[in-house]
Amino acid sequence: MRKFFQSARGIRLIPFAGALLVLLLFVGFGEMFLRYQADDLKNKQRMETIAHASLLRARTERELNSLLYLSSGLGSYLVVRNDSIKAKEVNDILAVLHRSSSHIRNFGVAIGYRLTFVYPLKGNEKAIGLHYPSQPQQWPVIKQIIESGQPALAGPVQLVQGGSGLIYRVPLFISGKYWGLLSTVIDTESFFMPIDEEFGEHRFEFAVRGKDGQGLGGEMVWGDAALFEDSRTFVQMVEVPGGNWAIGVRIRDGNLESSYAPAIRLLALLLGGLIAWMMYLLIRNRAELAHLAMYDQLTGLPNRNLFEDRVRMAFARQKRTPGQQCALLFLDLDGFKEINDNYGHRVGDLVLSISAERARNLMRQNDTVARWGGDEFIVLIENATQAAVDSYMRRLRERIEQPIDCDGTELKVGVSIGNVMYDETSGDLDEMLKMADHRMYADKDRRK
To answer: What is the pTM of this model?
Structure first.
């Protein structure tokens, strides 16, 4: 019976494994489709992000250019009138320039290293007289601008008059010697907030890195620094006077899984489950048919077809190694007909199943017990001696003839056994069967 249950378990496991494989394939195909969709969406989002970053760069450059070159005329005036500068004329020019843009916090003119003119004065009083070398946060950048002779955009810096500003500084030289510094202070929040609000209406967020024009290696100019740590962020470089800024743009709803992903997964699961179930039924039916063709349905033992196939293989091995004997045993249950007639077929089937299990449990792994028909069994023993066969017959008889409990009723059957060794015949199965059958009946007569 153990072998029967193992075979039955195998019949169940093979269809189940096939069905599970089909289900996993469908689920895998569903995930592959979703992955393809996600990659496609990722590419689309990437293209949108790049396009958005280009628009943002253009907007930033346009705004900066409109601000940074407002003071170019004033620089020429200061160079020409350096020995006869009139405060009222300077303030008038600065007032006109200041009205040109709402982002300008103030203009400043430093003669030498001290800030001399500031417009508007209101709110910027603390900046008047500022001595640059005494400002440790600003002086290194100012010194670099003066030494290079090139304008540069610095900041954002904390202004002495309060607030944060981007400062565009233009060094002024007369006859090749440094004369002064023209500064345009851009209010940081006023400059970036309109851009943030304009682009904030879309699905994107941005940040700017590159304080003092140091690009990606610099500190933050605007926004969240964590944006640059996200792999989805596209970085666009923007040239500014004296260096560059890095603008990072990221799509806000970066979910790469489509809204109908749960429906696709459910569909793949249902469709895969349906086909897997059909596959399970098909394979199971085929396996059961194959099993029924080779095994006895009641006892789970090999039937005649499978037994004869194993005997042919055993005889082939016998011919290759004549020293290894094989033997056939023919078994018939004594008293089974009376049990079957008196207690019914259900009890008779139970007696057959238990007897078959007892016979199988005594066998070695390579030997075979088969049901020949009715209450007859046949045994193939390989690599056996007559002494081993006799011992097995004795133990087999003792085991089968033990009482069987059936719902409190003790039943008992006997067993008649006929055996034949391979070398007693010419090696023909029919001849061995006839000899074993004859000896079984002789044993039955003797036992009576």
So the answer is: 0.51
